[in-house]
């Protein structure tokens, strides 16, 4: 299993830098450590994630940072295909998506 930050940790870092430039690196690091993520099979992460490895280009980070809620859905939709291929049920997948949105809302990333 891999821990997949949805959206990517780098997108959240860009979001903080653009919206809260007064936050120092130490506080930013602590915030990012608590950022919502999900455990998914490693092969799904590698094969389907929009942001795994070299796929998280600057333009993707900027796009995701501009709308975190949309980024969660986009990033989640990408791995959803792999989870469905593995036989994970649609309702379980959508519960996980809902939980991610709840965590982001609770942590103040968006409403």
Helix content: 55-70%
What fraction of the residues are assigned to beta strands by DSSP? 5-15%
Largest β sheet strand count, sense and barrel closure? 2 strands, antiparallel
Radius of gyration: 14 Å
Q: How would you sum up this structure, described in words?
A:
The protein is mainly alpha-helical and 111 residues long. The chain has one domain. Helix content is 64%, strand content 7%. The protein has 6 helices and 2 strands; from the N terminus they run E-H-H-E-H-H-H-H. It has helices at residues 9-19, 25-33, 42-48, 58-66, 68-85, 90-106; strands spanning 2-5, 37-40. The longest helix has 18 residues, at 68-85. It is globular and about 45 Å long. It starts with a strand and ends in a 5-residue tail after the last helix. The mean pLDDT is 95.
